[in-house]
Amino acid sequence: MAERLVASNKRARRDYEIQDTVEAGIVLQGTEVKSLRAGQADLTGSFARVEGGEVWLYDCHIPPYKEGGYINHEPKRPRKLLLHKSEIRRLIGKVAQQGITLIPLKLYFHGGYAKVLLAVARGRAKADKRYRIAEEEARREIKLAVRRIKG
């Protein structure tokens, strides 16, 4: 089945070192689904937390549906993520380590269901970010030089 991307967190790959990923379903209200189907969502600054044996997504901005009227949803409300108990236990073990966090990488529809790709990630220091940017620029320059040589 094809997956349809709604939103991606482009800064996550730059700011965090991704160690593992897991796909989770997301519990939504009707107007939230309609907003997502319209392609409206923002994952920047959002994160997930394990609380009481459940995983919750915080600070994910899904704007109100413009035809929702008085029954519209709150844009930044915490949303429950759907995972198997074994996956939650595995995440609890990983997040218990110092400096590890859960970051959403992308929000998409897969087979008609809204899904979130969660990353188990460790934050990067500013120096690490600079080093990675320098490496990428060097790779880009090498590719460009090879293209010039080939013709």
Question: Would you mind describing this structure in some detail?
Answer:
With 151 residues, the chain is an alpha+beta fold. It has a single domain, classed as Small Protein B, Chain: A (Beta Barrel). Helices cover 33% and strands 35% of the residues. The protein contains four helices and seven strands; from the N terminus they run βαβαβββαββα. It has helices at 10-15, 30-37, 85-95, 126-150; strands at residues 3-8, 16-26, 47-51, 54-58, 79-82, 100-110, 113-123. Strands 1-6-7-2-5-4-3 form a seven-stranded antiparallel β-sheet. The N and C termini lie far apart (41 Å).
CATH architecture: Beta Barrel
Q: Indicate the low-confidence ranges by residue numbers.
A: none
The best one-word shape is globular
Strand order of the largest sheet: 1-6-7-2-5-4-3
**Structural class category:** alpha+beta
Largest sheet: 7 strands, antiparallel
Rg on CA atoms, Å = 18 Å
CATH superfamily: Small protein B
Series of H and E elements: EHEHEEEHEEH
Give the terminus-to-terminus CA distance: 41 Å
In short:
With 151 residues, the chain is α+β, with helices and mostly antiparallel strands.
List keywords for this structure.
Small Protein B, Chain: A; globular; 151 residues; 7 strands; 7-stranded antiparallel beta sheet
SSE map:
Elements: E1 3-8, H1 10-15, E2 16-26, H2 30-37, E3 47-51, E4 54-58, E5 79-82, H3 85-95, E6 100-110, E7 113-123, H4 126-150
Antiparallel strand pairs: 1-6, 2-5, 2-7, 3-4, 4-5, 6-7
